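I have been asked to look over a protein record a colleague put together. Alongside the sequence sits a line of tokens, each denoting a local backbone shape. Please read both lines and tell me whether the tokens look consistent with the sequence. Take the sequence as given and treat only the tokens as open to question. I have pasted the whole thing underneath without changing anything:
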Amino acid sequence: MSTAETAADVQYSVASLSKEDLLRDYRLGWESRHASLAGRKEVFMGKAKFGIFGDGKEVPQLAMARAFRAGDWRAGYYRDQTFMLAIGELTLQQYFAQLYAHPDVEAEPSTAGRAMNGHFGTRHLDEDGNFKNLAQSKNSSADISPTGGQMPRLVGLAYASKLYRQNPELHQYSQFSVNGNEVAFGTIGNASTSEGMFFEAINAAGVLQIPMLISVWDDHYGISVPAEYQTTKQNISEILKGFQREGEGQDGFEIFRVRGWDYAALIDTYQRAAEVCRAQHVPVLIHVQEVTQPQGHSTSGSHERYKSKDRLSWEEEHDCLRKMREWLLLEGHATEQELTQIENEAKETVKVARTAAWNEFFNPIKQEAAEVVALLNRLVKETGTENQLHELVEPLEHNPAPIRADLVRTVRRALRAVRGTRSAARRDLQNWLEQALAENADRYNSYLFSQSEEAIGNIEEVKATFAADAPQVDGREVLQACFDANFQRDPRIFAIGEDVGRIGDVNQAFAGLQEKFGELRVTDTGIRECTIVGQGIGAAMRGLRPITEIQYLDYLLYAIQILSDDVACLQYRTKGGQKAPLIVRTRGHRLEGIWHSGSPIQMILGAIRGMHLCVPRNMTQAAGFYNTLLRSDEPAIVIECLNGYRLKERIPQNIGEFTLPLGQPETLKKGDDLTIVTYGSMCRIVLDAARQLADAGISVEVIDVQTLLPFDVDHVIADSLQRTNRVLFADEDVPGGATAYMLQQVLDEQQAYRFLDSQPRCLSAQAHRPPYGSDGDYFSKPNAEDVFDAVYEIMQEADPKRFPAIY
């Protein structure tokens, strides 16, 4: 194990820094510290909702910043403010703007006020939603709160460098990489190394041999829980010693230990670690020990409640800025007077930035409040409702720090109070409300999806064409031809997953493609769903087009957290500043057994808003979706039908070119009596039932929704119900799952309840997973007889004479 325990033998690194460099770092450290101290006070004064700060981590982050170059990437957690200040991608005024939740992207470029403070990110996209030149900028992927959640993405950010270096076809994309020389820097707290995704990411990086440099800030605690409850041996680097490579050219990690208050050793450690990482593409872990946390975890509590007096005394003595001060004086780099002046100036700089940020945030709201009060007072005069409106106007007029919700809430209640009256003031107040709601929709609700030219809605539809003599082939061959064509078209596309490579996936849709395109394009992975997806997220953020395979839909649960908390909300939480057009390919629905027959659609629908969800009924439809998604810049999940790979289909002549629009249902069968809405493998079952129902004199219309997100954007289903007046929603999810979602979309969103003559019905699977065997499937998931009976019961209720009871 490499060590950097003291400043001995490291003078070459520190000696390369001038006095100005050293004092600049000291100044930045104190500016960051005073920002933390001031931030806590702002929360307690009520000017911010919550605060979590990076105090105690300043010096190691200054050292890390000195090893960080243009083109490099960060995937961190919410205490990296000093690092962001040091690389020039955060100002103190922006820091406070985020604390106040300023919803202006110019004032708060990381998240436009959408994430709580300490969540940093750089803007990778221009105003049109296109990637900037990321090889020339210092890049930070957007932070998320779940501790450890940055690790899967970190693997992908580093993996992209490997692909850009080793795949000659990618050398043309110079805006994303310079020969793969970029290092992905990750940061994590010591307690969060207990997370499973940390260990999974460490193992993945060791296998892949990628330039990933992970720093563990070890302050001994995870909120109130000390290291003895967190980590075996209370030492993460000690228990990871088996990952240490045995020598240059060998697989494994380089592992360093360094104390978080030793500035000289930190500078040396980060320079050496980054050089190994960058030049040799070796993953590195730096265990930064003896770190302090002077204000405790956050503004939600005090660390004096759980730290002993001895620990608090030790932390005061080993504060990294105090230790840096001692070192600067000892080495003769500065005088006592110089350092005191820097500390005082830093405090004043923070005060000026804090005041400017508050004024920029609050003054527009104050002006809006004055406008609303004036409009309300006019309303009182014109309507004579002074007593009635007094209780609304007075609190707003005397509120020293209103928020926009106060304004809108007051206006809505005032308009409610004068409903039915006519006045110019009432019309002006209505106009103000309409404009305010539109502006706040942009501030708080926009950019769930891309707004660029590559957004899904802008991809031109190209119809599939078929030769007259097109042979019938296995469905898997349709997909294979689709992937083959797309891989030839775009060298940025690659696929990773369990068994994807050598055997061409378990259902053979990638058969022969690794041999044709090489292991860098079609790659086997270990059994690690979370980091398979994370590998794709990070690579997609760096301009590549990954297809990440989760072998079975049931196993998506391993990755659902990272899909939900990271990629699904990426565009939203950066207000269009970052994107990751990841495609997750998986298969589900009908097969055999509890863990290979999954249809957990309700879970997916609730978790991935911000991604698209495609549920094709066959492989030709799936191919059309892949062609569309690979031309778009939005992330999606495609669920292929497990029992469809051996069913016969025709391959389109334009297999790699035809596109299928999302949100467009297809009517598979016309009918007059009732509409059945379904998707995926249920389509074949419903069509079978429709034939049986026709024999009983019932004409049903069968609609395949094709995508659940987006859902029927043109209201095709409502148009059908206007003719048939009855509906059955059918799928394989649990009761109240996707059937309830479809019902809500059609009856509520599309307001199709107006057309119904019978109660709408839902037909779903049992609440449990199907047991093994064909009988287990038949008695657990909807079958053709179940569909027949459900439809017949609806028709029997409507016309009992024509349709007498069966049972």
Summary: Residues 2-12 have pLDDT under 50 and may be disordered. The chain has four domains: 20-334, 363-445, 456-650, 666-798. The two ends are 76 Å apart (CA to CA).
